[in-house]
Amino acid sequence: MSFPLxxxxxxxxxxxxxxxxxxxxxxxxxxxxxxxxxIHILTYELLPQLPSPxxxxxxxxxxxxxxxxxxxxxxxxxxxxxxxxxxxxxDLLGAARALLGDSEGxxxxxxxxxxxxxxxxxxxxxxxxxxxxxxxxEGGGARLGIRLLNALYKDPRFATLRHVFEHDMRLTMTDVIxxxxxxxxxxxxxxSLSPFVCTHIDHPLVRQLVTDHFRSFLTCNVVPxxxxxxxxxxxxxxxxxxxxxxxxALVAEGFRRGTVMKSPIEAFVSAT
Length: 272
Fold this sequence. Notes:
Blueprint: E1 3-9, E2 13-18, E3 21-26, H1 35-46, E4 54-61, H2 69-79, E5 85-90, H3 91-100, E6 105-110, E7 114-119, E8 124-126, H4 132-135, H5 141-154, H6 159-169, H7 173-181, H8 186-191, H9 194-199, H10 204-222, E9 231-235, H11 237-241, H12 243-252, E10 256-261, H13 265-269
Parallel strand pairs: 1-4, 4-5, 6-9, 9-10
Antiparallel strand pairs: 1-2, 2-3, 6-7, 7-8
Helix pairs in contact: 1-2, 5-10, 10-12
């Protein structure tokens, strides 16, 4: 007997749902990784974990833009040659389906990166380009890391917190520069600073920093839809961890809060 396999993949990790259970591998992003890397993850990280044969693979992932969709499906077919159905879609469509089902609304991703869309209950009808963490991704974990580091090293009000940060994280400004400009996958490292933010969220300056972070996301990415009548739902680690600041930002920008979910896999598990 075989079962459908669902995937929700970001730049940092991939969650897989099969038979009501969740499995994990590192992130898969066809824009950032070559075929050999992705096939290695599927073959050596995922397949040994799966307890049952797979009848279908429905993959939602970051980087699965239209030009990359056939390539991603080809690699999934390589890993699952007996699957009858193999589909690869954007993580944004997966988020919208998980958050909104067949209802109209605005769906957002707030994880390592960020994205948003206007969803009509079946398809994405409008999308403000995310542009990645260098040019965009407001509201995402990497940009939160950038905002934190700018505050720590440029804003005198954060001087005490900077000393705490360098002590707790065992980092100097030289280390920070090295991680961002010389080490691979700086977006993941920047996003990894979120636990420090979370630890100090009760500090007024930190709380305001996070709220402003989400307000920037809303003004840059959600306001252009011109649909303040619709609820704004969000999925991702930042949406879940900083739910209070997300709500504060929505109120400040005149939006109504919808569903908040840590991962779309919560909805997909029930479908397996």
